[in-house]
From TrEMBL:
Belongs to the bacterial ribosomal protein bL32 family. One of its GO terms (molecular function) is structural constituent of ribosome. It comes from Natronincola ferrireducens. PANTHER family: 50S RIBOSOMAL PROTEIN L32, LARGE RIBOSOMAL SUBUNIT PROTEIN BL32. One of its GO terms (biological process) is translation. The gene is rpmF. InterPro entries: Ribosomal_bL32, Ribosomal_bL32_bact, Ribosomal_zn-bd. It comes from the Bacteria. HAMAP family: Ribosomal_bL32. Keywords: Ribonucleoprotein, Ribosomal protein. This is Large ribosomal subunit protein bL32. Pfam families: Ribosomal_L32p. The keyword Plastid does not apply. Residues 1-15 have a biased composition (Basic residues).
């Protein structure tokens, strides 16, 4: 039967448990062109603009 040789410290135990709490939902920002929510550092799917330049043309 496997038995731990040393007691696991509170710090090591908490570091192991904290690994699952690092995941967060992605943050949305408001597009400066159309004011729709979009993921940051990505082309807006509504208007096709990125950094105030039209990157893709979106059919409306």
């Amino acid at each position: 039967m496997a038995v731990p040789k040393r007691k696991t410290s509170k710090s090591k135990r908490d570091m192991r448990r904290a690994a699952n709490s690092k995941y967060v939902a992605p943050g949305y920002v408001k597009c400066p062109q159309c004011h729709e929510p979009k993921l940051s550092h990505r082309v807006c799917p509504e208007c096709g603009y990125y950094k105030n330049k039209e990157v893709i043309s979106v059919n409306e």
